[in-house]
């Protein structure tokens, strides 16, 4: 697990911390570091909780693993908005839709 975390240090991740935010919805933050007991995270949202006034530079906050529901790599770019409501990556062009070669030909 340490090698997986090491790969994401100083990169954005999505993390769910229900004890802090009252919801298991993940939010984007930067993974600053990790220890045996938890993670060092940085984000504006964490700063609002850690700092009384919530102003200034984003604070680096230690969050114990026991408080983290899950953590995953953040996408590098947002998924494209689809006007048709189709799932990204599942769209087929009109010229190829319905044209399928039978197996073995």
Structural notes for this entry:
- The chain has about 100 residues and is α+β, with helices and mostly antiparallel strands.
- It has a 5-stranded antiparallel sheet with strand order 4-3-2-1-5.
- It has a domain of about 70 residues: SH3 type barrels (Roll).
- About 15% of the residues have low confidence.
- A hairpin with a 3-residue loop joins strand 2 and strand 3.
- About 15% of the residues lie in helices and about 25% in strands.
- The chain contains 3 helices and 5 strands, in the order αβαββαββ.
Structural class: alpha+beta
- Averaged pLDDT, please? 76
What is the CATH level 1 assignment of the domain at 2-73?
Mainly Beta
Order of helices and strands: HEHEEHEE
CATH-level-2 architecture of the domain at 2-73? Roll
Which fold name fills CATH's third level, the topology of the domain at 2-73? Answer: SH3 type barrels
Instruction: Output the number of helix runs.
Output: 3
Tell me briefly what this model is:
The protein has 105 residues and is α+β, with helices and mostly antiparallel strands.
What layout of secondary structure does this protein have?
Layout: H1 2-8, E1 11-16, H2 18-21, E2 27-34, E3 38-42, H3 44-50, E4 60-64, E5 70-73
Antiparallel strand pairs: 1-2, 1-5, 2-3, 3-4
């Amino acid at each position: 697990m340490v090698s997986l975390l090491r790969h994401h240090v100083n990169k954005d991740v999505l993390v769910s911390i229900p004890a802090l935010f009252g919801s298991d919805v993940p939010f984007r933050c930067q993974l600053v570091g990790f220890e045996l007991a938890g993670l060092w995270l940085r984000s504006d949202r964490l700063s609002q909780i850690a700092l009384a006034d919530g102003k200034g530079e984003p604070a680096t906050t230690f969050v114990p693993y026991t408080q983290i529901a899950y953590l995953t790599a953040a996408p590098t770019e947002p998924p494209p908005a689809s006007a048709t409501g189709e799932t990204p990556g599942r769209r087929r062009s009109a010229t190829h839709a319905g044209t399928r070669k039978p197996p073995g030909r």
